[in-house]
Amino acid sequence: MKFDFILHWLWAIVFSILALSGIAMAGAKYGWVMQYDIATADIVHRLAAVVYVLLTLIIIIYEMIRILRRDKTKKPWLVFGPSGYGLFTFITTLIFIVTGAMIWLFMDSSHAVTAFALWIHDKLTYLAVASVIWHIYMKSHALKWPKKKAQKGR
Amino acid sequence: MFNKQKRPFWQLSSVFAVLVILVLALSWSNPSEKVSQMDASMADMMSNEVLGYTTIPDLFNPGTMESTEVLSSNGGHAGHHDQAGRLYAIHLITTALLVFMLPIIIAGALFLAIVWPKPVKWRNSK
User: Fold this and answer.
1) Which of A7, A87, A121, B2 lies 20 to 30 angstroms, CA to CA, from B44?
2) Are the beta carbons of A53 and B102 separated by less than 8 Å?
């Protein structure tokens, strides 16, 4: 199994956990997503956020190594890329991480910073979730089980 | 009407739709839960309450606002952390990891932002 494929699906799982726990905390309107258990949603969101940041770091280092080695091979499953949806994911991820870190670190010391970062984090979530749905729609052929493709090939 | 190529998407969507209906049904059937009447999200509420009178310099001066509230809330948090030692330890470890990884990510992102526009020409020519 390819490294970029594993990273892609790990990323998808972690993003889903973050989106669900984040939406559950976003407001009372969406609290039902996690049965109004905001405390658990907060812990889950923070733990998943660390994994998300770690995955981001791994993907960035992987991409840097590829560039430094002048690796020309196409990596269709790689989460970040210099154009298209890869670039969009890269930019939104950086904004998510920076605003998330601002909320995390300044929650107790500055309401201004927290409010500003939280507003961006919140609005970006809706944009990112909508884009993920569009991404799944566009790449839905990849959801087909590979065995079926092999059988058709015969 | 539906494109056959997109069938997996609609299958996945129907699975999620069933899950959402199940969670909603479970949520509404639980009498112990009290659904809040608030419709606004936490971010909208905070931005209405705080950002309305916040200036840009306030964003760069953490700790200058609502000092009394911060002091009292910090006191409360300290006591809470003592009670939940394991949670506090997890908080410290995850915060340390985040603070350690953040500068590396920003540096890596800067590197990619500089190098990414070049490789297309650079890789094709090699």
Assistant:
1) A87
2) yes
Counting DSSP H helices and E strands in chain B, the numbers are 6, 0
- Choose among B19, B67, B69, B57: nearest CA to A20: B19
Of B43, B45, B120, the CB nearest to A121: B43
Q: How many CB pairs under 8 A join A and B?
A: 166
Distance from CA of A2 to the nearest CA of B (A): 22
> B122 lies in a domain?
no
B90–A109 CB contact, under 8 Å: no
Q: Is residue A116 situated within a structural domain?
A: yes
Nearest chain A alpha carbon to B105 = A57
Residue of A nearest to B122 (CA): A70
Residues of A within 8 A of B77 (CB-CB) are 108
Residue A90: domain span:
1-131
In this predicted structure, the answer to whether residue B123 has a pLDDT above a threshold of 70 is: no
Looking at the 3D structure of chain A, how many domains does it have? 1
Angle made by CA atoms A113, B112, A67, in degrees to the nearest 5: 155
Comparing CB atoms, the residue among A54, A97, A140 nearest residue B8 is A140
Q: Do B51 and A109 touch (CB under 8 A)?
A: no
User: What pLDDT score was predicted for residue B5?
Assistant: 77
CB atoms within 10 A of CB B83: 8
Q: What pLDDT score was predicted for residue B70?
A: 45
Question: Which pair of tokens denotes residue A118?
Answer: 């939280």
CATH number of the CATH domain containing A108: 1.20.950.20
pLDDT tens track for B13-30: 888 888 888 888 877 776
Mean pLDDT of B36-55: 72
- Number of other CB atoms surrounding residue A47 within 10 Å: 16
**By mean pLDDT, which of A23-27, A33-37, B49-53 is the weakest?**
B49-53
